[in-house]
Design brief:
This protein has about 675 residues and is α+β, with helices and mostly antiparallel strands. Among the domains are: about 5-225, no CATH class; about 535-580, no CATH class; about 585-670, Beta Barrel (Barwin-like endoglucanases), CATH 2.40.40.20. It is built from 16 helices and 30 strands. Helix 1 runs antiparallel to helix 6. The longest helix has 29 residues, at about 180-205.
Length: about 675
């Protein structure tokens, strides 16, 4: 049937029917899965794909799952070209081939109509454990993908309707809690069978040709809608850079993510040239994951209400150096896919802020922050694996503060926190506290959202704790002169003594015992706009609510409260004038000497005269941020160099483009509040 023969009513009914099928798949998984990370946290996604591996329908799903899934479907179709038959079921989790991390296991269920391949229902679900060096398969300090769990290329789990028992035994033998994994797999298969029945009804009613025609029309109109919104942007190249936190032998060695975003008519090119080569650490991922970050930032900014399918992806071109942190190759680990995706969102926000500053927000919390505890419960006579992703803050934006302890936009329907009753009934854990973190939201005219303070206690036996987070050292940034958010923090508390980890945010297999408490503090969101322009009454309300301390009200917002908690208007006006006038400004001078240093990582350095550093209150290797004409800041580590004139700030061409400044312009430079790292920084030699 030609497109001209399909009327608008039929088009909408068929397309919404496909979305309804996906919603029913989701309901099936929630009811049938064995793992609380699926039925409580909703860490799974469903979608439908056509024979060209284009995603044609999804629902309230995890963007970090569904957007890379077309790559996985294409890989499976390439591997089984001409060899996919009715009754086949394909399973995979390969992080190098459109996967995310190894915990996300994808089931593809080909459906035929009229003897031809018609539609793939697909489920990508987070399995709470897929083997590897730690329970939960989360290891912040992995150096190889082989430490992260069993890697599954596209394989047929079912052939012609018969289960391949050898494949099943091989997989489950390499995973902790195999009965739970089998239950989660059967839930995914059940959802696909529900989809099969509903799709057969749809085809019986409208015909194969009409359904495929509606799919093609829907993809085309989604593409046009996205291109129309891109076309409204000014053509040009916009650049930004940010960091992920890699520890090399226990020493912090930040890795660089660099983006050039090109708007050319109705298309966008996201080029990651100059980004860090891949490292023997978890902060690598596939180009599919990087592409998900690009799409999330672009779609949520330009067209948050439009459909999400492969048609909307067509206007975006991705480029990246091979074997880099955004286009990983074997055998580098890829467990921090969520951190890579979120950092892509960060650099996209930094670039988009130069184009549409009134439509972006401060940086999001910038980390998935997965925590896991694994052990054996004698009281329950079984092993357990706890997985949780305590939500952080969202960035402030024009007219509104950011939401607090709320899943970021790239997390879709995932819950902010795990259900307490479920955790405590299934595992020997006691949730001691869950509250918002005072002063964790980035200061701004519109404050960033607050992070979460969550503490739990192990009730029996011994267990191991792991965390794979980021933004523990380089905090989420504010825009438009706003301040950064509070960084991630984790600690173990034993006998009243708090022990910080030498590798903040990334811990592998730390032994804990009954009575120990684990403290998890998620990052906040960056602020939006000059904090000295925030309504003093809003600051007073924040202090009264416990969101902002009285000290930060004075130092960050310039708001003075009297002994009764009321605003001292005269003192506030005077303090704000003084704070504004005392912001340190340095003069930009061109400097094209080597800009980045490090070991395996790459971090920007800024050379300052010792007297300049003293005036700023910074020292060698202090992390600072520079604020220029563009809304988002530039981060760098200080190098003391008395060959630089006092009051000068040398900056290369790329850095000047990030800030929108030229030689002779001035920038504000300020130190960032970051936690100490006991082992220091790797690769400290001067460049």
């Amino acid at each position: 049937m030609s497109h001209e023969d399909i009327d608008p009513i039929t088009l909408e009914v068929v397309c919404e029917g496909l979305r309804a099928i996906v919603k029913e798949m989701r309901a099936t998984i929630i009811r049938a899965s064995f793992s609380s990370v699926i039925y409580e946290l909703d860490d799974f996604s469903c979608a439908l794909f056509d024979p060209l591996a284009e995603m044609v329908a999804q629902s309230d799903d995890h963007p970090g799952h569904v957007m890379p899934m077309p790559w996985s479907v294409r890989c499976a179709m390439e591997d089984f070209a001409g060899d996919i038959d009715e009754g086949d079921v394909i399973v995979l989790n390969d992080a190098y081939r459109g996967g995310t991390h190894l915990n996300d296991v994808t089931v593809l269920f080909p459906i035929f109509a009229g003897g031809e391949l018609f539609i793939f229902p697909a489920v990508r679900a987070h399995w709470a454990d897929v083997g590897g060096m730690t329970p939960g398969s989360y290891s912040g300090l992995s150096t190889s993908i082989y430490q992260e769990g069993v890697r599954i290329p596209p394989v047929k789990l079912y052939e012609g309707g018969r289960r391949n028992e050898g494949v099943m035994r091989l997989l489950l033998s390499n995973m902790r809690l195999p009965e739970e994994r089998l239950g989660d797999l059967n839930a995914s298969l059940g959802a696909c069978r529900v989809a099969e029945e509903r799709i057969e009804r749809l085809v019986a009613k409208y015909g194969r040709g009409t359904v495929l025609g509606c799919i093609a029309m829907n993809l085309d109109r989604s593409e046009r809608r996205m291109r129309d919104r891109i076309r409204a942007l000014p053509d040009g190249e916009y650049v930004y850079e940010d960091y992920l936190e890699f520890y090399d032998a226990g020493r912090l060695d930040p890795v660089l993510m660099r983006l050039k975003l090109t708007v050319d008519g109705d298309q966008v090119i996201a080029d990651f040239d100059g980004s860090n080569p891949q490292v023997p650490g978890v902060v690598n991922s596939s180009l599919a994951v990087a592409g998900a970050g690009v799409f999330v930032a672009l779609k949520s900014t330009l067209d948050p209400h439009g459909p999400v399918n492969s048609g909307a992806f067509r206007a975006i071109t991705l480029r990246a150096p091979e074997a880099s942190i955004v286009d990983v190759r074997p055998e580098a680990p890829a467990g921090a896919h969520g951190e890579v995706r979120k950092r892509v969102v960060s650099v996209m926000l930094g670039a988009l802020a130069q184009i549409i500053p009134d439509r972006i927000s401060g940086d999001l919390s910038g980390t998935s922050f997965p925590n896991s505890i694994g052990g054996y419960s004698a009281a329950r006579d079984r092993r357990y694996v706890y997985v949780e992703v305590p939500a952080g803050g969202n960035g402030g934006f024009e007219g509104h503060d950011g939401s607090s302890a709320f899943a970021n936009v790239d997390f879709g329907a995932i819950r902010s926190i795990h259900n307490v009753e479920s955790l405590e009934s299934e595992m020997p854990l006691f949730i001691e506290r869950c509250e918002l973190r005072t002063d964790s939201g980035g200061e701004g005219r519109y404050r960033g959202g607050l992070g979460m303070h969550r503490a739990l206690q192990l009730e029996e036996g011994e267990a191991v704790y792991s965390v794979l987070g980021d933004r523990a050292f380089v905090p989420p940034f504010g825009v438009g002169g706003a301040g950064p958010a509070g960084p991630v923090r984790v600690a173990r508390i034993r006998d009243g003594r708090t022990v910080e980890f030498d590798t903040p945010g990334k811990v592998t297999g730390h032994l804990i015992a009954a009575g120990d408490r684990v403290l998890m503090e998620s990052a906040g969101g960056g602020g939006y706009g000059d904090p000295l322009r925030r309504d003093p009454e809003a600051v007073r309300v924040d202090v009264a609510a416990g969101y902002v301390s009285e000290g930060r009200a004075r130092e960050g917002y310039g708001v003075v409260l009297d002994g009764e908690g009321d605003i001292d208007a005269a003192a506030t006006e005077a303090l704000r004038e003084w704070l504004a006038s005392s912001r340190p400004r340095l003069s930009i001078v061109p400097d094209e000497r080597p800009t980045y240093t490090g070991g395996k990582g790459m971090r920007r350095i800024v050379r300052l005269h010792g007297a300049t550093a003293g005036r700023l209150g910074v020292d060698h290797d202090t992390l600072v941020e520079l604020l220029g004409r563009h809304p988002a800041p530039l981060r760098a580590w200080v190098r003391l160099d008395d060959r630089i004139a006092e009051g000068d700030c040398p900056l290369d061409a790329f850095g000047r483009r990030v800030l929108g400044v030229a030689p002779g312009d001035t920038v504000v430079v300020r130190s960032l509040r970051t936690p100490p790292v006991a082992a220091g920084l790797a690769g400290q030699s001067d460049a």
